[in-house]
Structures are given as structure tokens and as C-alpha cells.
Amino acid sequence: MIKNSVRALCALSLALAPLLTASPAHAVTACTVNGVPSAGPDVTGTAGGDFIACSMLDAGHTVNALGGNDTIVLTGDISGTVGGGAGSDMVRLATTGTLNTAGVINGDVGGDAFDLRGTVLGLVQGNEADDFITVGVVGAGGTVNGGAGTDFLQVGVNGGAVDGGADFDVCQAGSGNPPVCEIVF
Ligand SMILES: [Ca+2]
Ligand SMILES: [Ca+2]
Q1: What is this structure's pTM?
Q2: Average model confidence (pLDDT) for the chain?
Q3: Cα 120 to middle of ligand 2, angstroms
Q4: In sequence order, which residues have a C-beta less than 8 Å from that of residue 45 and are 6 or more positions away?
Q5: Which residues are placed with Cβ below 5 angstroms of ligand 2, an ion?
Q6: Distance from the alpha carbon of residue 10 to the mean position of ligand 2, in angstroms
Q7: Read out DSSP for 57-90?
Q8: 28-61, pLDDT tens digit by residue?
């Protein structure tokens, strides 16, 4: 009787295995907030300094780090909206990451630092205060805007639009379209 039950359980797990291991039909948000997994659609930090990492962010999903000086690390396909919230935030896009057409990165309030080594096809906004933004590749249709404040923007290859926004900004583009800034070198 026990043997039969074990056999039945084995057969059941064999039948379920393909379902459990099947690849998802579409991208699925995969983030952690201070080490705790979150699948969205709203990935939310705390009022203090948070460490948020995402290997995937679906279109329509959001990351909001809220207040505090937060660190956000993006390593894959980012199609949602990432906000640093108040505070001086650090946002990194690894070389393996892409900010897709629908994707947005916002520094929000506070002087923010963006180290975006991957490809930007979407929208990057420093927003208020003095922001420091470096981007590896801005693809066609991609936009980087420093917003208000004295910003420093550095882009390796600019196939899109790079603009310091309001106030006195300093920009550098290795090649491609010239940035729109008070000082370009
Ligand atoms: Ca926070
Ligand atoms: Ca901020």
C-alpha cells in the first residue's frame, strides 16, 4: 500500500516536472529589495537607504526606492519605470543590461549618479539637483536628459538625444550625435 502511494507520488512528480521547469512565455520581473525577492508589479524600497537589484523588469512594472540614498542595480532587460525617489541615489545598468524603448530611469529629487554601461533605448532623466550620468551607448530613439541642476553627462556612443536640460551643464559624447549642453567637449 505504501509502495503504491510512493509510486503514485513519483508518477505525479514526473507528470508535473515539465510544468514546473517550463520556460515562461514572456519576461517576468525578477528583483530583490534588500535581498528579499519581488516579482512586481510594484517593487518598493523603504524610507531608508535600500539595495535593489533587478535582472528583469516588465513593461508597466515599477521600481520605487523611495527616500534615503539608494543603490539600484539593473542587469537585464528593463522595460518598466525605475525611480530613485528622494535622496542621492546610485543607479547602475550593467553591460548585460538594456533599458528598452518602454523603459524609464528617473533620479527624482536629489543629486543622483547613474553609471549606465549597457544600452539605453528608453528614457533616462536626472530630474532635480546636480546629477552625474555616464552612459555606454544611447541607441536610436534613446534619450538622456539631465533635468534641472548643474549636470555632468558623459556618453560613449550617442545614437539618440543627450540634453543637459535646464541650468549649466557639461557634456561629453565620444561619437555620434552632439549633446545639447552649455559646455560640450
Ligand atoms: Ca529608499
Ligand atoms: Ca534621487
Answers
A1: 0.84
A2: 90
A3: 19
A4: 33, 34, 52, 64, 65, 66, 68, 70, 85
A5: 84, 89, 107-108, 110, 112
A6: 52
A7: E-TT-EEE--SS--EEEEEEEE-SEEE--SS--E
A8: 999 999 999 999 999 999 999 999 999 999 999 9
**Domain 29-184 is of which CATH architecture?**
3 Solenoid (2.160)
Decide if 36 contacts 50 (C-beta within 8 A).
Answer: no
Q: Where are the domains of the chain?
A: 29-184
| pLDDT of res. 6 | 52
Report the distance separating Cα 90 and Cα 180, nearest Å.
Answer: 24
Banded model confidence at residue 4, pLDDT cuts 50, 70, 90: low
The pLDDT value recorded for residue 141 is 96
Q: Would residue 147 be called left, alpha or beta, if left means φ above 0 and alpha means ψ between -120 and 50 degrees?
A: left
- Nearest bound ligand to the CA of residue 108: 2
- At residue 150, the pLDDT reads 95
